[in-house]
Amino acid sequence: MPIRVLPEQLIHQIAAGEVIERPASVIKELMENSLDAGARRIEIDIAQGGVGLCRIRDDGSGIAADELALALSRHATSKLTCIEDLERVGTLGFRGEALPSIASVSRMQLISRARSADVGAKVTADNGSVTDVAPASHPTGTTVEVRDLFFNVPARRKFLKSERTEVQHICRTVERLALAAPGVHVQVREGQRELLNFAAASTTEQRERRIAQVTGPEFIEHALRIDEDTPLLHLYGWVCSPTWGRSQPDLQYVYLNGRPLRDRLIGSAIRTAYRDVLFHGRHPAYVLFIDMDPALVDVNAHPAKLEVRFRDARGVHEGVFRAVEKVLSATQPAAITTAGPGYTAALLKQAQVAEQWPLAGSTASLDLHRDWVRDAPVVDRDPLAAVTAPVSVQPQAQTPPLGYALAQLHGIYILAQVPEGLVLVDMHAAHERTTYEQMKRQLAKGAVPSQPQLVPVSVQLSRAQADALEQFAESLASIGLQLQRSGPTSVRVLETPALLRLRELDALLQTIATELLEEGSTHALEAALDRALGTMACHNAVRANRQLNIPEMNALLRQMEATVRSDQCVHGRPTWVHLSLQDLDRLFLRGR
Ligand code: ADP
Ligand code: MG
Q1: CB of 8 closer than 8 Å to CB of 128
Q2: Distance 36 CA to ligand 2 centre (A)
Q3: Which residues does residue 81 pair with via DSSP β-bridges, in sequence order?
């Protein structure tokens, strides 16, 4: 075949292939245009899954009659004039491609009235040919009507899914954009049926209500608020408390300067922040807004503009990671609110609590295997008395957040009394977390102190496992594990962390070696070491059915209060729950 220049219409259709994949892409482009035009109200009507009709009407700035035809030409935009503008884009659109692309694969009508005009105008595009502009009545704003999508591109049409699925895609698209524009009233209808309706929101409470409309109310109820400034960016929004992790990564919304993103870098920064606290294999949920100087971001990196390039990618990763980690590490028992652990109000009080309970800080080395912390406050030294006699409850202002232990249940739970009800603590999970955090602090200071084994133990492993332990021997020494290769399939344990009383060294080393093999490439080493610390903390933690006395239990409670992230164990399970007197009254149908 000879080389030919393609016909104009075909060029448009090829370009449309990049941005207009399905009806939801039409809605996305048109809704972005309405938002760029400063609309306060956006009404969307669809029919036949958006293939038959997508109509979007806004009350934005409108388009002047003499620019109407121009809006439909390729590379025509009012949002850029020169290359400098491209380097600091503040609008959602800038490529001038959406309207001509959509027009080339549908029958489109554009009606608009600019703010300064007395009357509106309309223009129609059918299969690429544009009619003359004619006067039409329309309030200030714009209506774009797109019918028979892909009628002239049968191949595309074949790739569309069922009507229901396409409607789902449209709704998800609108929701994603609606979260970024809380002040705009957004409505979606299919015939007479209302699919979505977001009232304009201005207060935080109203914004949270809008988020709840998208995510379901539980997310907001379990969310922690973030609002952090770094030299590079401002980050704010909502992240789920670690015990609310999801089995799917389906509740993850990130916005950069108001633009929805699917960005791997930011996703990875958030995942890293949850590394220590989320149950393995669960996914965090979040709605996060990042604002930064547009000059530091290249948004011209993806046809649908879902990805961007950062000038300082490392700085963005670090900033997001630190901000999220900070709010997550504040999940420790604080003054109990009726909502229970992990709640915003509790977090706010956390700083005060640390000061209020210097005792908690002084019991730094809770060691459940040696002498018990003596100076922990004790309700009653005789556990039986605690059960038989009414407990002398301290005045409210003096009770620490997790209260005082009353008893141990089935060798698993600690039952503690607080002025507002009772607290149940999972002993093993709590001890595991406090030990782990303590070892991490030691590691941050240099190395975890170790202690020689009285009798060095030789552990049998596979050759690959032994190789992995030998390869990372130096790093393992930094977390208190001194090992020496003693044969092709064995290593000798010379020293173990001083803080721990490790048993079953075989099982422990096998787990650590396997994990090193799985993710022990050098850059993931930090994560692997954290995991190894977690494994050791877990092996060390008090096992179920170990009888604790009251001072031991209280020592653990005080230790939890002094430990960051202690609302969850290393695996992301909660370490404690609170039952208020109200909850108890409800159980017993009191006061009905
Ligand atoms: P872009 O958004 O990249 O500029 P589009 O093809 O989406 O390109 O739109 C072309 C131009 O048409 C825009 O720059 C804008 O001036 C105008 N326009 C499109 N939709 C609207 C709208 N809803 N309200 C006001 N102006 C609009
Ligand atoms: Mg646009």
Answers
A1: yes
A2: 8
A3: none
Pocket residues: Cβ below 6 A from ligand 1: 29, 33-34, 37, 58, 60-63, 71, 76-79, 93-99, 142
Looking at the CA of residue 80, tell me the nearest atom of ligand 1. Answer: 4
pTM value is: 0.70
Place of tokens 């344990």: 493
Q: Is 378 a residue whose pLDDT tops 50?
A: no
pLDDT, tens digit (0-9, with 9 covering 90-100), for 346-374: 333 333 333 333 333 333 333 343 322 23
Expressed in angstroms and rounded, the spacing between residue 197 Cα and the centre of ligand 2 is: 23
Q: Which atom of ligand 1 is nearest to the CA of 77?
A: 14
Nearest ligand 1 atom to alpha carbon 144? 23
With the CA atoms of 373, 374, 380 and 382 taken in that order, what torsion angle do they form, in degrees rounded to the nearest 10? 90
pLDDT at 370: 33
Residue 291 has pLDDT above 90, yes or no: yes
Quick count: other Cβ atoms within 10 Å of Cβ 336? 24
Tell me which H or E stretch contains 577: strand 576-580
CB atoms closer than 10 angstroms to residue 395: 7
CA 62 to chain CA centroid, Å, is 37
Both tokens of residue 548?
Answer: 């604790």
What was the pLDDT predicted at 334? 58
Rounded average pLDDT over 380-399: 41
Question: Which residue reads 């609002």 in tokens?
Answer: 227
What is the 3-class SS of 25-60, one letter each residue? HHHHHHHHHHHHCCCCEEEEEEEHHHCCEEEEEECC
- b/e per residue 466-488 (b: at least 16 CB within 10 A): bbbbeebeebbbebbbbbeeeee
Q: Are strands 234-240 and 286-291 parallel, antiparallel or unpaired?
A: antiparallel
> Strand 482-487 vs strand 490-497: parallel, antiparallel, or unpaired?
antiparallel
